[in-house]
Structure formats: structure tokens, C-alpha cells
């Protein structure tokens, strides 16, 4: 008789991939291919939507303008104000790229979110951090930028030695970590949950079907469906949050944060 003890849940090894080409570069794996392919899809989408825009948008242009308007009004404008349009190219691209990296985790036969690898959102977060520091030094001066970000108005002098180092660590280290890890951790956890419940359904309904195991398998299928819908929401939300933080950091470079 097959028991639940025979089942082995998927583990972190589902994030480990061999090179796509035998004997080829060790780094050229499925996640790398997906990340590059998603970037190509974003370029193709933008080209199809905006290369030859019509007065009355239709099809891909209509979808592109809808997403562009959403990013502009709901993400960029609350932080950047009059500078919004200047940075929309970057923010619009970031939103589409993170969203595409996330959504491939739900595509049949692919089913792996590229953004669950910290390297990919990490590189984007580093680029945003470098841009933030560059803009801060350019618009506020080196000394003024450090002072504006680490010394809030009214801070007592005795607290400066405590607060300023903590704030600088937050600005240059923790802000990057939370920017990158937030999306990565959510995609990692979501992929693990979907892999677990889908494997439960397959094992107890297909691989080892039995009267006692069938209810467990059905539960796995139902949870997979529910979690897929929830994960879709999380994927969109994480793209939104990553782009929103990018807009906030850029605004912090353009203008004093305190």
C-alpha cells in the first residue's frame, strides 16, 4: 500500500539548473535564457506598440498605452511630479521587465519565474541605486546629499552619531537589499508553494492513485488553482512595488528627502 510517507516534496533543488548546452558555459542555464528572452519580449512589445503610433490606438498600441498610463499616473507621478515624463522610459521598462520575469512562472512548460534568482532583480536594484546617488550628488552636491539623507531637520546633535550611520547604512545597503529581495523572495516562495501542491496532486491522482490518497490529490489540485490565481496577483503587485521604489529613489536623488 502506498502511504503519504512515500511522497517526497520538492525542495530547493528545483531552482538548480544544469547548463543548457552540454560542455557550454556553466552560467547559460534556463533562468538566464528566460531573463534574456523576457527582455526581448519587452523590446518587441514596445516596438510593436510605439514604433508607429496611431492617433486612435488599437491592438498592441492600445495595451501599451494603457500600461504606460498606469505606470505614469499610479507609480511615477506621485513621487516625481513635474519630472515624471523625463523618467517614464526607465520606469515603464522596469515595470514591464519585472512583470514579464514574474509571469513566465505561470506559463505552461516554462513555469519558472526568472526574478526568483536574486541576480536579476539585484542588478536592476544596483542600477537604480547608482542612478540615485549620481542624481543626488549632481543636484544637491556631495556634502549636501549626504547631509540631506542622513540628518533630518531638528535632530539633536547628541543623536547625530547614532542616527546618521544607521541612515547611511539604510540608504546604501538596506534599501538595495529590500528593493531586490522583496520581489525575489516572493517569487521564490510562490514557486515553491505551486511546485509543492501541484506535485501532491500529480502524485496522489496520477502517479500513485489510491482510494485513501485521492482526497489528498484533489486538495493539491484545488490549492494549485487557488494559489495560481493568488500568485498572479502577487506577480503584478511585486512589479508595481519594484517600480514604485525605483521612482521613490530617483525622486530622493533629485530632491532632498528631508
UniProtKB/TrEMBL annotation:
Q: Which SUPFAM superfamilies match?
A: F1F0 ATP synthase subunit A (SSF81336)
Bilayer disposition of the protein: Multi-pass membrane protein
State if Transmembrane helix is listed as a keyword. Answer: yes
> Looking at the keywords, is Methyltransferase present?
no
Q: Where in the cell is it found?
A: Cell membrane; Membrane
Which UniProt keywords are present, listed alphabetically? ATP synthesis, Cell membrane, CF(0), Hydrogen ion transport, Ion transport, Membrane, Transmembrane, Transmembrane helix, Transport
Family matches, as InterPro entries: ATP_synth_F0_asu (IPR000568), ATP_synth_F0_asu_bact/mt (IPR045083), F0_ATP_A_sf (IPR035908)
Superkingdom of the organism of origin: Bacteria
A cellular component term from Gene Ontology for this protein is: plasma membrane
Give the stretches traversing the membrane: 32-51, 87-110, 116-137, 188-206, 218-241
Molecular-function GO terms, alphabetical: proton-transporting ATP synthase activity, rotational mechanism
Q: What does this protein do?
A: Key component of the proton channel; it plays a direct role in the translocation of protons across the membrane.
Query: NCBIfam families recorded for this chain?
Result: ATP_synt_6_or_A (TIGR01131)
What is stated as this protein's family in its record?
Answer: Belongs to the ATPase A chain family.
HAMAP family for the chain: ATP_synth_a_bact
Please identify the protein, giving its name as recorded: ATP synthase subunit a
Q: What organism is the protein native to? A: Nonomuraea endophytica
Q: Which gene encodes it?
A: atpB
Amino acid at each position: 500500500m502506498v502511504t503519504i510517507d512515500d511522497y517526497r516534496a520538492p525542495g530547493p533543488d528545483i531552482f538548480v539548473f544544469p547548463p543548457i548546452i552540454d560542455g557550454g558555459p556553466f552560467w547559460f542555464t534556463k533562468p538566464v535564457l528566460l531573463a534574456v528572452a523576457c527582455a526581448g519580449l519587452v523590446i518587441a512589445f514596445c516596438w510593436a506598440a510605439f514604433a508607429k503610433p496611431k492617433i486612435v490606438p488599437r491592438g498592441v498600441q492600445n495595451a501599451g498605452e494603457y500600461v504606460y498610463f498606469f505606470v505614469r499616473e499610479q507609480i511615477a507621478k506621485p513621487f516625481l511630479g513635474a519630472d515624471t515624463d523625463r523618467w517614464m522610459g526607465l520606469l515603464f521598462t522596469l515595470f514591464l521587465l519585472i512583470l514579464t520575469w514574474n509571469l513566465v512562472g505561470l506559463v505552461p512548460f516554462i513555469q519558472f519565474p526568472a526574478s526568483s534568482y536574486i541576480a536579476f532583480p539585484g542588478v536592476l536594484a544596483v542600477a537604480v541605486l547608482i542612478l540615485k546617488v549620481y542624481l543626488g550628488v549632481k543636484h544637491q552636491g556631495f556634502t549636501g546629499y549626504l547631509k540631506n539623507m542622513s540628518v533630518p531637520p531638528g535632530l539633536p546633535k547628541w543623536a547625530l552619531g547614532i542616527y546618521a550611520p544607521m541612515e547611511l547604512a539604510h540608504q546604501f545597503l538596506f534599501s538595495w537589499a529590500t528593493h531586490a529581495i522583496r520581489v525575489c523572495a516572493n517569487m521564490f516562495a510562490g514557486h515553491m508553494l505551486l511546485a509543492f501542491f501541484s506535485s501532491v496532486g500529480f502524485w496522489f491522482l496520477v502517479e500513485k492513485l489510491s482510494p485513501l490518497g485521492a482526497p489528498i490529490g484533489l486538495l493539491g489540485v484545488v490549492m494549485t488553482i487557488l494559489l495560481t490565481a493568488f500568485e498572479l496577483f502577487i506577480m503584478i503587485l511585486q512589479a508595481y512595488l519594484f517600480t514604485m521604489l525605483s521612482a521613490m529613489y530617483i525622486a530622493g536623488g533629485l530632491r532632498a528627502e528631508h
